[in-house]
Every structure is written in C-alpha cells, then in structure tokens.
C-alpha cells in the first residue's frame, strides 16, 4: 500500500471541532457514502462543505485480496480528489464557484470509479 505513517493520528468526532479553542476549519469533506443522507452538523465559522463519498473499505467482505483492493481503491480516489483540490486557484474563485468545483471533483471521481467497477 502507500506506507504512510499513522503514528499520532486518530479518528475524531465532529464535536471536537465545535469546542472553544478548536482549530479553525475552512473545508469539510464528508466521505462515507452513508453520510450523504445524514444531516451534517453546523460547523463553527461556516466552512465550505462537499460530499466526496467513497465506498467504506472496512465494510467490504471477501478474501484478503478483495479487502486490500477496496482500501487501495479508496486511497486512489482520495489521493486524486485531494490533488485536484490542491490544484484549484483558490484565491481566484468566489465562494459559489469554489463550491461548484468541490462538488464537480466529488462527482467526477464517483463516475470514474463506477466505470471501473463495471
């Protein structure tokens, strides 16, 4: 796989970011396909939000090769989306144009993944 160290990293509840002294958030990306139907919390500072759904690798059943492929696919999708996001001319885009770009990135990659699955 990617061999990226996860030392010192942990999953965090969204509630951590609503507390006094929490870091300011500019962007929130929901990833879980189930989250698309859930109501998102109100984030302090009203950051830009987008849903970039990715099939949840721990939910995959099958042999070790199928499970590894699910994790590799999720990594590839997120790596590509983040690269596209980082290439955006953030200073040149107004809020509405930026929101459209974030949504486009999520939808385009979803269509590409669906085509690979067929």
What would a concise description of this structure say?
The chain has 118 residues and is an alpha+beta fold. The protein has 2 helices and 2 strands. The protein has a domain at 57-118.
Overview of this structure, please?
By secondary structure, the chain is of the alpha+beta class. It has a domain at 57-118. The chain is built from 2 helices and 2 strands, in the order ββαα. It has helices at 64-86, 95-117, and strands spanning 27-32, 48-54. A two-stranded parallel ribbon has the order 1-2. α1 (64-86) packs antiparallel against α2. The two termini are 24 Å apart. The model has no long low-confidence stretch (mean pLDDT 85).
Q: Roughly what fraction of the amino acids lie in strands?
A: 5-15%
Q: Structural class from helices and strands?
A: alpha+beta
Query: Could you list the spans in which at least 5 consecutive residues all have pLDDT below 50?
Result: none
What's the shape?
globular
The strands making up the biggest β-sheet line up spatially as 1-2
Helix-strand sequence: EEHH
How much is the average pLDDT?
85
Computed CA radius of gyration, to the nearest angstrom: 16 Å
Helix content: 25-40%
> In angstroms, what separates the terminal alpha carbons?
24 Å
How many E strands? 2
What count of helical segments does DSSP give? 2
Largest pleated sheet: 2 strands, parallel
Question: What keywords describe this structure?
Answer:
118 residues; alpha+beta; two-stranded parallel sheet; 2 helices; globular
């Amino acid at each position: 796989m990617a061999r990226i160290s996860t030392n010192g990293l942990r999953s965090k509840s969204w509630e951590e970011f609503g507390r006094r002294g929490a870091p300011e958030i500019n962007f929130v990306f929901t990833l879980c396909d189930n989250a698309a139907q859930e109501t998102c919390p109100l984030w302090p500072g009203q950051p830009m939000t987008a849903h970039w759904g990715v099939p949840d690798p721990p939910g995959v059943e099958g042999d070790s090769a199928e499970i590894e492929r699910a994790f590799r696919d999720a990594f590839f999708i997120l790596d590509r989306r983040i690269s596209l996001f980082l290439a955006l001319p953030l200073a040149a885009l107004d809020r509405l144009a930026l929101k459209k770009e974030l949504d486009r990135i999520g939808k385009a990659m979803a269509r590409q993944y669906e085509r690979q699955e067929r």
